[in-house]
Specification:
The protein is α+β, with helices and mostly antiparallel strands and about 240 residues long. It has a domain at about 1-10 and about 50-100 and about 125-230: NADH Oxidase, CATH 3.40.109.40. It has helices at about 15-20, 20-30, 30-45, 80-85, 100-110, 115-145, 165-170, 225; strands at about 1-5, 50-65, 65-70, 75, 90-95, 150, 180, 190, 195-200. The strands form 2 sheets. Strands 1, 2, 3, 4, 5, 6 and 9 form a 7-stranded antiparallel sheet that branches. Strand 3 and strand 4 (about 75) form a beta hairpin. The relative contact order is 0.19.
């Protein structure tokens, strides 16, 4: 298993405002509101401690809608086999921006700073999405170095792939090494943590070059996807060299 903290987070107020749409832009024109938002942006970077742990596990067999990995761990369901199909190995990872932001959100809520807490919560979600994207780029580079292709990535709970498979992912990587734990209800702590998988192989794979938003169960009502947020992030699918 590998661990990395080498991530660069970008919090751009104009970009955030474009995600939130015209109504938020009008709200931001009020000096008092803009001051509150700018104060959250100024603090946000110091609250984030991005980290990821990941491993690459050989695929033994595809069994209908599930995958059996080396060591006997099974996962799948939903679009997993459709996306990963044809892969020879599965990259499995957990990413986080740490627990400090959770503590700060709690402080804001207790202080009645609900608007600031909302902005910080969204920035933290944006941050962990950036970490996931950058890790995916790293995994693509790892597979490219083998002369392999890379599938689109998937995260449990963001599509018809059940969040219950968090259990399988936590068997494959020691997320505790980056401070992430899993509850009996399959919820990760710290709150701003995500898991993901993507396939790698020498032949064409099931789905390459799309985004996780293409498989998300709320893509039709997600304001970030509609406004060009998460869904507009281009995934760099690796190709044979």
């Amino acid at each position: 298993m590998e661990i990395t903290h080498d991530f660069r987070l970008n919090f751009d107020l104009d970009e955030y405002a474009s995600f939130r749409g015209e109504q938020f832009a009008r709200l931001l024109a009020r000096p008092a509101v803009r001051g509150q938002v700018e104060s959250v942006f100024a603090e946000a970077a110091s609250l984030m401690a991005p980290a990821a742990c990941y491993d690459v596990v050989a695929i033994e067999k595809f069994l209908h809608d599930r995958i059996r990995l080396a060591g006997g761990v099974m996962l799948g369901g939903g679009p997993v086999v459709e996306v990963i199909g044809g892969a020879e190995a599965l990259a499995v990872a957990v990413v986080t921006v740490g627990s400090v932001v959770d503590e700060r959100l709690k402080q804001m809520q207790e202080a009645g700073q609900r608007f600031q807490a909302l902005v910080l919560d969204e920035l933290a979600s944006w941050a962990v999405d950036q970490v996931r994207q950058q890790l995916y780029d790293l995994l693509c580079s790892t597979f490219t170095a083998r002369g392999w292709r890379t599938s689109t990535f998937l995260s449990p709970g963001e599509s018809a792939w059940s969040v219950r498979d968090q259990r399988a992912i936590f068997k494959l990587v020691d997320a505790g090494a980056i401070g992430v734990s899993l509850s009996p209800g399959f919820v990760m702590t710290p709150m701003k943590s995500l898991s993901l998988v993507c396939g790698g192989g020498s032949q064409p794979l099931g789905v390459e070059g799309l985004t996780n938003c293409d498989f998300c169960s709320i893509r039709d009502r997600c304001e970030f996807s509609r406004s060009g947020g998460h869904g507009a992030i281009p995934l760099k699918a690796a190709t044979l060299t």
